[in-house]
Design brief:
The chain contains six helices and no strands. The chain is mainly α. It is elongated.
Length: 163
Amino acid sequence: MPERELVERVLGTLNTFIGQLHAATWIGAWLVANTKDREHEHAVKYGLQITGGVIALTVRRFQDVWRWHVEGLVTAGSRGWDAADWILREAQRRDLGATANLIVAHLGEKPGAWPLSSDETLALIRRSGWNTEEEVLAWGRQALHRLVELRDAISERMESEWA
């Protein structure tokens, strides 16, 4: 794939991730603000699980894209690199692969496993280093802002090289 096309695909993918994190954190904030609404408590509870799962899965997908397509487009030590490095270190520290797999992609750790109970889901989130939904959402916003930094750094670099 020609470099310009690769860069455009990378920027488009980063925009998708940014949009997903923006939507998840915005919807999550709305859900948190409505936790006392008894009429919709079921939707709030599971909506927060969904938004947390989207945050984890989006960052996990970024890890894959970084390795194969993004890493070569930024210079080590640049602001884009530092932004990506923060996301990657956080994803590893929080074991977001397992979190995304168990909250979003699979029912359990092994085929045939039962779905996680509410207590097991909460324990998984706590093992990832968060205690509240608000902490997950705040972390998601940090990841979102760093993806914007990375996207902008790649875009600026490429614009100056192609000018």
